[in-house]
Amino acid sequence: MIIDILTIFPEYFAPLDVSLLGKARRNGLLDVHVHDLRDWTHDRHRTVDDTPYGGGPGMVMKPEPWGEALDALAPPGSANRLVIPTPSGRPFTQALAVEYAAEPRLLFACGRYEGIDSRVAEEARTRMPVDEVSLGDFVLAGGEVAVLVMVEAVGRLLPGVLGNADSVADDSFAPGAMESLLEGPVYTKPPIWRERPVPDVLLSGHHGAIARWRRDEALRRTALNRPELLGRLDPGSLDGHDRDV
Ligand code: 6GU
């Protein structure tokens, strides 16, 4: 997969050289290009922002550098999908990460200040799919950190990026059995630590009992931290034991 990132702060993306994604890039599974938006300005000060029409606080990103940058990075026929992080976008979910992982190219446009002049997304939409996407109900200073989050969520889904041992199938929110269930607690050696034993069932070797226990713990944790998710469980997938938990 090819990922282009447009930003006025290319330094934000240094973490993409590290760990799982760094390795995926070195192995050629993920091809990330970070571009400085100011390369598409033409004035001495490389200006990217201006005051908002209608008044109000803060600054708005000017459309011209964005237009030229998108023309250069997404020429006709380039199969790009444009993703614009903004707190006013649709929610970024595991299902959207799975969709993005199937795309040949993603282009992320990081806004700063009060956002990007709205005509940029509107005009881009005449040439390619455009998603305005939010990570949740809070406000970041700019799109850069949101893009790091999305690139990691998408990158780990690409074939060959995770070892087989770290299967993606039982992630919280994974489509299928774990959809709308949070993962329960996990344990490793030693069997007793600071007088706290690992739950007996996990040492029993009884795979059916272990699966039952894990599902119960997932239900319990979901009820505690995200009760609204339980309403989304497929009623057909519930058994009598689930109802007792
Ligand atoms: Cl995607 N961008 C910004 N700037 N703030 C956010 C966000 C995105 N998601 C939540 N807050």
Task: Tell me what the structure shows.
With 245 residues, this protein is α/β, with parallel strands linked by helices. The chain folds into two domains: 2-164, SPOUT methyltransferase, trefoil knot domain (Alpha/beta knot); 169-244, Orthogonal Bundle (Trp Operon Repressor, Chain A), CATH 1.10.1270. The chain contains eight helices and nine strands. Strands 2-1-6-5-7 form a five-stranded parallel beta sheet. The structure holds 6-chloroguanine. One of its GO terms (biological process) is methylation. This is tRNA (guanine-N(1)-)-methyltransferase. GO terms for molecular function: tRNA (guanine(37)-N1)-methyltransferase activity. Keywords: Cytoplasm, Methyltransferase, S-adenosyl-L-methionine, Transferase, tRNA processing.
